[in-house]
Amino acid sequence: MPSPEQNAFQARARLLELHKALLDAERREHEKTLGRLTDGEFLEALVKDPAFAWLQPLTRAITELDDVSPESDWPAQARRIRALLGPQSPDAEFARRYAALLQSDPAVLVAHGAVVRELG
To answer: Model-level pTM?
Structure first.
């Protein structure tokens, strides 16, 4: 049976892929309005523009996986991540934006499926 650290490592890898798919989709939309951005300009917008704040719950979930130890309650962490990514997400803004991208962007849908499979 995999350890909590092994489970977290695998889940984190899938969540990073999902995060990248979401960022790519958001960047395309952002650039439709503002024009092409350099990587540095996009990073600055990502950090400072409130339009990207909805991604923070997923970013926090990823960083929390960095602190998993043998004593961690991996099943509880996996449940929190599943809840965040589910239709009844505890974060309404995240749920709204995430659901829209699941419907409109195939890369987001594929990455979501990989996370769900990894979390079991």
So the answer is: 0.91
